[in-house]
Amino acid sequence: MSSRPSHARLTVGVAVAALGVTTLVHIAYLPRYLPDEFTRSLPYLALGWLSYGLLFYALGRLKPALGDGRMPTMRATDVGIGLFLFSIVLSGLIDTAGLTIATAPALHALPGVGVYVGLALAGWGFGIRTRTVNEIAAERR
Length: 141
Prior knowledge:
transmembrane, membrane, mainly alpha, 141 residues, transmembrane helix, elongated, 77% helix
Protein backbone atom coordinates (compact mmCIF):
# COMPACT_ATOMS: atom_id res chain seq x y z
CA MET A 1 0.00 0.00 0.00
CA SER A 2 1.40 3.40 -0.89
CA SER A 3 1.33 6.48 1.25
CA ARG A 4 -0.35 9.78 0.41
CA PRO A 5 2.76 11.99 0.85
CA SER A 6 4.73 9.99 -1.73
CA HIS A 7 1.84 10.30 -4.21
CA ALA A 8 1.68 14.05 -3.62
CA ARG A 9 5.45 14.40 -4.08
CA LEU A 10 5.35 12.36 -7.26
CA THR A 11 2.45 14.42 -8.60
CA VAL A 12 4.23 17.67 -7.76
CA GLY A 13 7.36 16.30 -9.45
CA VAL A 14 5.38 15.48 -12.59
CA ALA A 15 3.83 18.96 -12.56
CA VAL A 16 7.23 20.63 -12.20
CA ALA A 17 8.75 18.47 -14.95
CA ALA A 18 5.80 19.16 -17.27
CA LEU A 19 6.11 22.88 -16.58
CA GLY A 20 9.82 22.72 -17.41
CA VAL A 21 9.28 20.83 -20.66
CA THR A 22 6.42 23.14 -21.67
CA THR A 23 8.52 26.22 -20.98
CA LEU A 24 11.58 24.84 -22.77
CA VAL A 25 9.62 23.82 -25.86
CA HIS A 26 7.67 27.08 -26.12
CA ILE A 27 10.62 29.37 -25.46
CA ALA A 28 13.56 27.56 -27.04
CA TYR A 29 12.25 25.39 -29.87
CA LEU A 30 8.99 26.76 -31.27
CA PRO A 31 10.33 30.25 -32.06
CA ARG A 32 12.97 28.64 -34.29
CA TYR A 33 10.37 27.28 -36.70
CA LEU A 34 7.15 29.26 -36.31
CA PRO A 35 5.68 30.82 -38.43
CA ASP A 36 8.03 30.13 -41.36
CA GLU A 37 8.43 26.35 -41.14
CA PHE A 38 5.12 25.21 -39.70
CA THR A 39 5.45 21.53 -40.64
CA ARG A 40 8.88 21.28 -38.97
CA SER A 41 7.42 22.81 -35.81
CA LEU A 42 4.60 20.25 -35.47
CA PRO A 43 6.55 17.70 -33.36
CA TYR A 44 7.62 20.45 -30.97
CA LEU A 45 4.10 21.84 -30.88
CA ALA A 46 2.67 18.40 -30.08
CA LEU A 47 5.27 17.88 -27.34
CA GLY A 48 4.47 21.31 -25.88
CA TRP A 49 0.73 20.61 -25.94
CA LEU A 50 1.19 17.18 -24.38
CA SER A 51 3.35 18.51 -21.56
CA TYR A 52 0.95 21.42 -20.97
CA GLY A 53 -2.01 19.04 -20.69
CA LEU A 54 0.04 16.79 -18.38
CA LEU A 55 0.79 19.78 -16.16
CA PHE A 56 -2.90 20.45 -15.61
CA TYR A 57 -3.57 16.73 -15.20
CA ALA A 58 -1.07 16.68 -12.33
CA LEU A 59 -2.60 19.82 -10.82
CA GLY A 60 -6.04 18.23 -11.03
CA ARG A 61 -4.73 15.17 -9.21
CA LEU A 62 -3.62 17.38 -6.34
CA LYS A 63 -7.18 18.64 -5.76
CA PRO A 64 -9.01 16.75 -3.00
CA ALA A 65 -11.73 14.37 -4.15
CA LEU A 66 -15.42 15.07 -3.58
CA GLY A 67 -15.81 12.33 -0.97
CA ASP A 68 -19.00 10.33 -0.38
CA GLY A 69 -18.06 8.08 -3.29
CA ARG A 70 -19.41 10.66 -5.75
CA MET A 71 -17.78 10.97 -9.13
CA PRO A 72 -16.98 14.44 -10.46
CA THR A 73 -18.63 15.36 -13.71
CA MET A 74 -16.65 15.19 -16.90
CA ARG A 75 -17.96 18.59 -17.96
CA ALA A 76 -14.56 20.31 -17.74
CA THR A 77 -12.99 17.57 -19.82
CA ASP A 78 -15.76 17.66 -22.42
CA VAL A 79 -15.63 21.45 -22.72
CA GLY A 80 -11.83 21.36 -22.87
CA ILE A 81 -11.68 18.79 -25.65
CA GLY A 82 -14.43 20.61 -27.56
CA LEU A 83 -12.70 23.97 -27.21
CA PHE A 84 -9.37 22.46 -28.26
CA LEU A 85 -10.87 20.89 -31.40
CA PHE A 86 -12.94 23.97 -32.25
CA SER A 87 -9.86 26.20 -31.94
CA ILE A 88 -7.79 23.93 -34.19
CA VAL A 89 -10.54 23.91 -36.83
CA LEU A 90 -11.05 27.68 -36.58
CA SER A 91 -7.34 28.30 -37.02
CA GLY A 92 -7.34 25.99 -40.04
CA LEU A 93 -10.29 27.84 -41.56
CA ILE A 94 -8.56 31.18 -41.05
CA ASP A 95 -5.43 29.76 -42.65
CA THR A 96 -7.43 28.33 -45.56
CA ALA A 97 -8.95 31.76 -46.18
CA GLY A 98 -5.44 32.96 -46.99
CA LEU A 99 -4.70 34.57 -43.64
CA THR A 100 -1.75 32.47 -42.51
CA ILE A 101 0.05 32.76 -39.21
CA ALA A 102 2.83 34.65 -40.97
CA THR A 103 0.49 37.24 -42.54
CA ALA A 104 -2.07 37.65 -39.73
CA PRO A 105 -0.64 36.45 -36.41
CA ALA A 106 -3.09 38.49 -34.34
CA LEU A 107 -6.04 36.76 -36.00
CA HIS A 108 -4.67 33.38 -34.94
CA ALA A 109 -4.22 34.52 -31.32
CA LEU A 110 -7.81 33.76 -30.26
CA PRO A 111 -7.76 30.16 -31.52
CA GLY A 112 -4.30 29.82 -29.95
CA VAL A 113 -5.63 30.86 -26.56
CA GLY A 114 -8.57 28.51 -27.06
CA VAL A 115 -6.19 25.61 -27.67
CA TYR A 116 -4.37 26.19 -24.38
CA VAL A 117 -7.53 26.81 -22.35
CA GLY A 118 -9.01 23.63 -23.81
CA LEU A 119 -5.91 21.62 -22.95
CA ALA A 120 -5.92 23.01 -19.42
CA LEU A 121 -9.59 22.13 -18.88
CA ALA A 122 -9.19 18.64 -20.32
CA GLY A 123 -6.08 17.88 -18.26
CA TRP A 124 -7.68 19.27 -15.10
CA GLY A 125 -10.87 17.24 -15.62
CA PHE A 126 -8.97 14.00 -16.26
CA GLY A 127 -6.79 14.63 -13.19
CA ILE A 128 -9.72 15.16 -10.84
CA ARG A 129 -11.55 12.14 -12.22
CA THR A 130 -8.46 9.91 -11.90
CA ARG A 131 -7.88 10.91 -8.30
CA THR A 132 -11.50 10.21 -7.38
CA VAL A 133 -11.47 6.81 -9.10
CA ASN A 134 -8.24 5.87 -7.30
CA GLU A 135 -9.67 6.90 -3.91
CA ILE A 136 -12.88 4.93 -4.47
CA ALA A 137 -10.85 1.88 -5.50
CA ALA A 138 -8.65 2.21 -2.41
CA GLU A 139 -11.72 2.38 -0.14
CA ARG A 140 -13.20 -0.81 -1.61
CA ARG A 141 -10.09 -2.92 -1.01
